[in-house]
Amino acid sequence: MGRRGLRTGPAFRTLRARGVLAAGSAVVMMAVGGLAVLQARPPAGPDASVTVAAPPRTVQPPAQAPALPATGPAGRGVLVYTACQSQCPTFLLLADGRQFLLGARTVSPPGNITLSPDGRWLGRPVRGGYEVRDLLGVAVHRLEPPSGGGADSAYSPWAWSADSRRLIVGYHASGDVRSYRTLELPSGRARELDLPPGREPVGLLPSGEPLLLDTGRHDRPPLDRVTLEHAGAGRPLALTSGAGVLSDADHGLSVQVSGERIFTLEYSGDRITVLEFDVTGRRVARLPLAAGRFPVGPVDGGFAVVQVPQDQVRGRQELAVLSPSGDRPLFDVPGLAAVVLPGGARH
Do 221 and 249 contact (CB within 8 A), yes or no? Predict the structure, then answer.
């Protein structure tokens, strides 16, 4: 019997003018990791001495773009996006501003494409399996579906390590997760992730240990407290809300991990607040979102949010990093766009 995956991450959402809907029929973006590092540092590897220009802040779909070559170096990725929720092509934006076509329509099923936190690795579903390719080199790693996988089954990216060396993927059908696998990079070594019953991996700590959620204990909202487990801790790690709840009938539980920081969302009426914790469960930041802003995911130095225009057909979505020290702009994209930023996965 498969395990029911708890929808704890923002997944690949789309933004609608009236607010955030549940994942699946809904909104916006994938989790983010390390984008500020991408803009501040030259690429690693053979071309490490080359200075790469920052990508353009305003992102527009090109009238024409070449298809991403099947293999070989292309460049460091900073954004995957499609300008609308159906019938629009999907593009990969590189750090030097070039764009490549990834598909003729919006990536389907949504949520199954990912960029590593450092922008080096691109992951996407291919013919029932999953492919992770090196955008700076020639390596292409493929995960084949397990025996007995059905036509409606697929791999989804679950969580990245902050150093881009590990990716957890889940193999699922209609929400029932059959198994999790860990892909080591750059070697491409894959192995089954052996978890206790009822546990879901929600992130990878710097030690390489997965952070686990007991889905059976957290599937009955409202919740104002969440406990997480990992092998290096002598007792469960507790995250508690302040002025609101971590999930309720209208909002699913969100847990995202970036290095030694754990992020959850707190809901109080119409107000959404990003809560940041360290790996001991101590809250280190509380970031309320202004009206019209919605959470995306953690980045280096803060948490990415999106400002949704009232007129999404004609307006632009504005991505920014929110932190206790202030806001920092990232990109603005078409008003109906769906995007994947580096580090984006289910968690």
Answer: yes
